[in-house]
Design brief:
By secondary structure, this protein is of the alpha+beta class. The protein contains one helix and five strands.
């Protein structure tokens, strides 16, 4: 299990991650409307870590840009 603190930047030009900053910054093309950015974040992280989406949980920050993520199976 791995816990990550992430700052999400929605409506970016491309999906990308900057893991050098603290908290990690994840740039997403999805807008922050109706949970689209949260779904895009889970999809992006599952592709990045090559795990299933069900192994990723947003435990804090569903309605903010600062999120705490739990990743199972790493």
């Amino acid at each position: 299990m791995r816990r990550l603190d992430i700052k999400v930047i929605p409506c970016a030009k491309r999906n990308a991650m900057n893991a050098e900053s603290t908290p990690w910054k994840v740039y997403l093309t999805a807008p922050a409307v109706d949970g689209k950015a949260n779904k895009a974040l889970v999809a992006f992280l599952s592709e990045y870590y090559k795990i299933t989406k069900s192994n990723i949980s947003i435990i804090k920050g569903l309605k903010t840009r600062h999120k705490t993520i739990i990743i199972e199976g790493l």
